[in-house]
Amino acid sequence: MQVSINVNGNQVNEEIEDRTLLVHFLRDQLLLRGTHWGCDTSNCGTCVVWMDGEPVKSCTVLAAMADGHEIRTVEGLEQNGQLDPVQQGFMECHGLQCGFCTPGMMMTARALLDRNPDPSEEEIREAISGQICRCTGYATIVRSIRWAAVHEASAKQGSNS
Amino acid sequence: MTTVETRLTEFADNNEKPVGYGRMLRKEDPRLIRGQGNYVDDLNLPGMLHLAILRSPVAHARIKSIDTTAAAALEGVVAIVTGADLAEKGLAWMPTLSNDVQAVLATDKVRFQGQEVAFAIAKSRYIARDAIELINVDYEILPPVVDVRKALDPDAAVIRDDLKGKTNNHCFDWETGDAAATQAVFDRADVVVSEEIVYPRVHPAPMETCGAVALFDAVEGQLTLWSTTQAPHAHRTVYALVSGLPEHKIRVISPDIGGGFGNKVPIYPGYVCAIVAALVTGKPVKWMEDRSENLSSTGFARDYIMKGEIAATKDGKILAVRTHVLADHGAFNGTAAPVKYPAGFFGVFTGSYDLEAAYCSMTAVYTNKAPGGVAYACSFRITEAVYLIERMVDCLAYDLKMDPAELRLKNFIKPEQFPYTTKTGWVYDSGEYERGMRLAMELAGYDELRKEQEEKRARGELMGIGISFFTEAVGAGPRKDMDILGLGMADGCELRIHPTGKAVLRLSVKSQGQGHETTFAQIVAEEIGIPPSDIQVLEGDTDNTPFGLGTYGSRSTPVSGAAAALVARKVRDKAQIIASGMLEVSVADLEWEKGSFHVKGDPSKSVTIQEIAFKSYGAGDLPEGIEGGLEAQICYNPSNLTYPFGAYICVVDIDPGTAQVKVRRFIAVDDCGTRINEMIIEGQVHGGLTDGVGMALMEMIAFDEDGNCLGASLMDYLIPTALEVPDWETGHTVTPSPHHPIGAKGIGESATVGSPPAIVNAVVDALKPFGIRHADMPLTPSRVWETMQGRHVPSI
Ligand code: FES
Ligand code: FES
């Protein structure tokens, strides 16, 4: 079948096998390899992308279901050569080790900050609780997201004054 | 407790302080945070085919027949390969890292659920999966051996009838220490405490599963294998031995690895299948296992039933420990440990205490379960050893009605006793145990916690405080004692300084997230004064790095870290000679100051390492006997292991209504000797502590009586999320290793080793009012509840 999906702001029209999972469509067909795959049961969250602004597990979405929708992946976080504060936060606070869970974690973090620019530690933990990181022990991920929140707030303040 | 906000001021200092040790942002992060990592599954070669493996649905059965007709006829299928096909090529069996053999594809019998039976090669992932569904295997079901305690029963089915003359399921026996001396001490001790301590089977479950892409160039006879391996060089040698391909025509590339934790040390049948598929089809072939394949067939960890005994005087002087271990090794002995150490480094079960005697005997058996044994950051079985001794010390404290901190403090090996030879023959290089313990107690506010606990107990609330103190033994290892499949555990390392003073360092180890590109650049920077940003670290490619045994057992910093420092010093020595020519003084008249040599007493006369590098390749003569260029290679053979240690304190609350355990606080004080990058060390500790919460409270690979794996998905095998773990509190002391060139000891597995006993000790402490002295992991709500009701809970 034919799908037409907006991926990171670009309209793509592709022929797919009906059963193709969104994660495989992104990785194997569009060669956007930043989105990962880590389980068979929708538990790990290494595959998290946005569909119409909401984080979804792309292993649990058929590419066909994304037809006519907007997808945003980790490759779409950096804008005009400018890293997203979430990406910076992860580097500054050691929010990643092997980096395998990282794209999914950052996509969830970005969505959280968009709806709640000043989340508490508890709110952050809750937001990423559908995802597993086997390396970091989460504390540094929490700090990374706080770093982004604080820096976004001060950047906003700077531009207001 | 430090809050999240105050930590924001701890900026990385690599911009301000560009040379050497300290906190520094990771060089690998810019690609990883952009989704530009390069993991095996990201590789997509032109014309690449996909491989899927058909696995046994049962634990023990004879294969009567395999019908591949329908599968082979499926559109898009290129080939179906069975054990019989491999047997024709002599490839049906392969050696394990423990000198056992393991079936690549089953020919005679299947011996565990999930064992490899056949594979399909197809044009796409999906078609390959469809094809294996169409393969029809006729099994004659045999009785499975699941309960390890019954594996040696005379009527137990013999699993390994492939081994000549094998009539039972015995794998090996092993002992260490002095049985008679230990008995004598036990005979005269005031107090003897015994307890059966079970370390259940768990799985490392890195977020990236295992996989490979194989490419064979028939004209050149060249095999290239991209694979998820922590030990590319060792794998290459094994492939050469198994396949008969000459070693120089095999290139193993280990690109970015999505976590390993020991899971990616063994050679799995899937890698060999991918190689065979590439040879058969002449096309590149990708194999990536799915999560249930990863959990049910690849290297598990632990699975030790330990009968522990501890002898002491009535005032709490520990005299001796003794244990008998029943070890479940699964269907094939796939343990990756030095040959002379079939039980890994379990011999350090005497812990951090000054004892009079110790003895361990062990029986290892085969069962109808997945092979493996050493994985999941276990530090070659020190995880089990530390859990045993730290649980036993708490049992003793319980019986003696002593405070567990006080009991430990009373028995530590004293700083002046180092180097200390244990009763099982390990030479601990250095330690200041009391200092670490006291720091952890201070950070935790130990006395106040005990007060709080007393008040809570009076109100019927369940709060527990658990302590563990561990000594690790890492950096395997001295070649005289340690090899894997005959390969000595020394590490090569090569450093080249380019004419413009930039450098490339080539390592034999392989990071799986530990940040080698950063840490090793810092080690060289510290020695030679080139900023870490100017040093490229290469690893994970056998064609472009020197030989060495890879990354596991926390050996990278102790072994390759030493190699990196020494190779840099070798380069610096040569640089000094060249500098003496440039400054026209004798070598002895030069002084080194990070990054340059200057004439003693005249700092204005100096040359930088960059100027020396240019000179070494440049025009004009060099001092007599000095060849051009500025590079060196070494192979580092460690003289001993290094012995990191740590003191951990865990505080838990248990909901009396649901028996849910909440880890409220965790204080970890580690001593890994010289610290290279604070940020990375802290990250390593955090990850290990989280493993500890998983193992102590959630994780277990269980089996039903038919040998069905009950932990084969992330829905069944529970791994901690951000909600199950607290904000970690860390501290450290520094006791440099006396024999390591930079005094570093290794940190990768300390927290995985040290945290489970702290958590279990805390839970048991919380349950003290119920008269509980021991409870087995994982301490799930149901287990804790049953324990609180005084019911017997089966351990595995
Ligand atoms: S791949 Fe695990 S949740 Fe999607
Ligand atoms: S960084 Fe490795 S899984 Fe999260």
Structural overview:
The complex is a heterodimer of chains A (161) and B (796). With 161 residues, chain A is of the alpha+beta class. Chain A contains 5 helices and 5 strands; from the N terminus they run E-E-H-E-E-E-H-H-H-H. Chain A is globular, with a radius of gyration of 16 Å. The mean pLDDT of chain A is 97. Chain B is built from 19 helices and 33 strands. In chain B, helix 7 links the parallel strand 12 and strand 13 (250-253). In chain B, helix 10 (382-400) runs parallel beside helix 18, helix 15 (556-583) crosses helix 16 and helix 17 (678-698) packs across helix 18. Chains A and B meet through helix 1, helix 2, helix 3, helix 4 and helix 5 of A and helix 1, helix 2 and helix 17 of B. One FE2/S2 (inorganic) cluster is lined by residues 37-39, 42-47, 57, 59 of chain A.
Task: Quickly describe the structure.
The complex is a heterodimer of chains A (161) and B (796). The mean pLDDT of chain A is 97.
Question: Helical element count of chain B?
Answer: 19
Biggest sheet overview of chain B: 7 strands, mixed
Give the low-pLDDT segments of chain A: none
Rg of chain A, Cα atoms, Å = 16 Å
**What global shape of chain A is seen?**
globular
Work out the largest interface and the residue count of each chain. Answer: A-B, 64 and 61 residues
What is the percentage of strand-forming residues of chain A? 5-15%
Q: Could you tell me the number of beta strands of chain A?
A: 5
| Overall outline of chain B | globular
Portion in helices of chain B: 25-40%
Give the radius of gyration of chain B.
27 Å
Structural class determined from secondary elements of chain A: alpha+beta
Please state the structural category of chain B: alpha+beta
- The string of secondary-structure elements of chain A, in order, is EEHEEEHHHH
Mean pLDDT reading of chain B:
95
Provide the residue-averaged pLDDT of chain A.
97
Percent of residues in helices of chain A comes to 25-40%
In spatial order, strands of the major sheet of chain B run 3-7-1-14-11-12-13
